[in-house]
Amino acid sequence: MRGPVTKITKFKTTLVKVPLTKPIATARHNVNSVGCVLLELETDQGLSGESYVFTLNGVRLKALHEMILGFSHQAIDRDPHFVAEIWQNIYNEMNAIGHQGFSIAALSAIDTACWDVIGKAAGQPLHKVFGACRDKVKTYASGGLWLSQSIEQCRLEAQQFIDAGFRSMKIRLGSKRMEDDITRVRAIREVAGPDIELLVDANQAFTPKQAIRLGRRLEEFDLGWFEEPAPYQNLRGHAQVRRALDIPIASGETEYTRYGMRRILEADAVDVLMPDLQRIGGLSEFRRAVALAACHDVPVSTHMFTEQSISIAASEPNCVSVEHMPWFCPLFNEPMEITEGYLCVPERPGIGFTFDQSAITHFKLS
User: CA 305 to CA 293: how far, in whole Å?
Assistant: First the structure.
C-alpha cells in the first residue's frame, strides 16, 4: 500500500548578511560580506528542506529574494519527491524572463531544498540516495591567498592551510604586472614544497595571449590548473590557451545549466569543468551536467556551496574535488571535517548540514 504523501506546507525565506573575517579582492571583485536568501521548505510530515543562494556584499539581494518568492507556488502543496516535475515546471515558467541569472538561482534554491527533504524522508544522506561512490572527497583551500594580500601574508596563510589539513590550495592572480603574479606563486610554492597541489585562478583577468604568456612562465611550478584565464564567454580563447599550455584549464562557474556546460565541452575549452550549484540549476541539473561531462571524459570540480556539493562529489565518479569555501560556515550547526586533504562526507540525512537558528537570528537583515 502507498504510504502517506508528503506535501510542502510552508515556504519560508530569510535574508541574512554574513561578514567575511577580512575584506578580500580578486581581479574582478571586492568582497566584504555575502548576502544570502535562506530557504526552508517545511512539510506536513515535520520535515524541513534547507538551501541558500547568495550575492556578493548583498547587492541586489532583495531582487533575488523576490525571484524565489515568485516561484513558490510551484512548490507549495506539492510532494517534494516530484522534484523533477517541480524543476521542469519552474524552468518552463521562466521562459519569458530567460534561463540565466536570478531565475536559475531561484530554481536552484527550490530544487536543492526539495532534495534535502527527500534525503531526510529516506533517512539517508543524499550521496547514498543518488548512489554513493566514495565516503571522502578531495578538497582545496579557497578561502585565502587573495590578490589583495601581500606576499608575506600569503606565505603565512599557505602554511596555516597545510597545518589545517589541506593538501591543495588556490591562489588568485590578475596583477597589473605579470612578474608580481609569478613572484606570488613562487613564494607560495616555496612554503608548500613539491607535494602540495597549487591551483591558480585569474578570475577572467587576461586576454588569451596574456594568459598564454603568463601560463608559460608558471609551468615550472607544477600547477594543478589555471582557472578562468580569460573572460568566460570567450570559449575560443579558452581553447586557444588550453592548446598552448601544459597546465590544465578549468572553467564553468559563470555559466548556466547543462546547456552552458555543453557549449564549453563542445568547444574543447576546459580540462576540468567547474559547475556552480547556484548557476547550474540545483542538484538535479548538477547531476545532468556531471553526466554530460562524463560523456566527454572531462572531470568535474564543484564551485562554492561546499556543504551541498559534497553530495554530488560523493556520488559521481568523475567529480574529482570540491572547493572548500568557508564564507558560509557560520550559518550551519555542523562543521566540515578535513583530514589529509579530504572532506569527510557526512552520514547525516539529506544534505547533512542544517541551519544554526541562533546564527540566523544574529545575521538576519531587518
Answer: 20
The cell for 266 is 563542445
225 closest CA partner among 204, 249, 191, 195? 249
Higher pLDDT, 3 or 76: 76
User: What Cα–Cα distance (Å) separates residue 162 from each residue in 182, 193, 302, 336?
Assistant: 21, 11, 21, 16
Question: pLDDT digit string (tens) for 175-234?
Answer: 999 999 999 999 999 999 999 999 999 999 999 999 999 999 999 999 999 999 999 999
For residue 50, the surrounding DSSP H or E stretch is strand 48-56
Side chain identity, residue 272: V
Q: Where are the domains of the chain?
A: 8-123+357-363, 127-344
CB atoms within 10 A of CB 176: 8
Q: Are the C-beta atoms of residues 185 and 217 closer than 8 Å to each other?
A: no
The pLDDT of residue 326 is 96
Least confident of 20-29, 46-55, 258-267: 20-29
CATH (one of 3.20.20.120, 3.40.50.2300, 3.40.50.150, 3.20.19.10) for 127-344:
3.20.20.120
Residue 174: Cβ within 10 Å count:
21
Residue pair 232/249 in contact by the 8 Å Cβ criterion: no
Would residue 301 be called left, alpha or beta, if left means φ above 0 and alpha means ψ between -120 and 50 degrees? beta
Q: Does domain 8-123+357-363 have CATH number 3.30.390.10?
A: yes
Q: What per-residue confidence (pLDDT) applies to 2?
A: 46
Pairing of the two strands 30-43 and 338-339: unpaired
